[in-house]
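Q: Fold this one first, please.
A: Sequence and structure below.
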Amino acid sequence: EDIAITRDSPERDRNIVPGIVGGCSFLGSLVDYSVETSGVVLRIQAPRGATFDRGERVYLSIHPERCIGID
């Protein structure tokens, strides 16, 4: 996954998006999270061992080398 989800804000200050977990679905070895960020809902998949509760504040970290600009 190119977007990481964590409880604590990562050390770096670029490409970090705070959000709120809206829901989750278990998909075997992964958990699919809906995260609301500034009115946009993103779906993030994370390993099953990382669990976040509905309504919990999280931080999404997007790796710069995986970003693609769209005109």
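Q: Good. Now the second chain.
A: Here it is, same layout.
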Amino acid sequence: TYPFASPPALEVMAGRRPQAADTAFLAASGLPPGLRAVLAGCLSLEPAQRPSATELIVALEEALVQSARSS
């Protein structure tokens, strides 16, 4: 499922600000909660709310460790 109503690049090219992503699909994805939170942050329209590359690496490592513990 595509998280945006329409591709953000097309919205910008049409002169419109993209709508926020629908992150409801993440809840039904079966992904661990930590990874869902990371992905939801990556889908934010506001750059300041998205994780930096370093934050993303740390969050993904933590999600991986948590996933390994629960397996």
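Q: Anything worth noting on the second one?
A: Residues 53-70 form the longest helix (18 residues).
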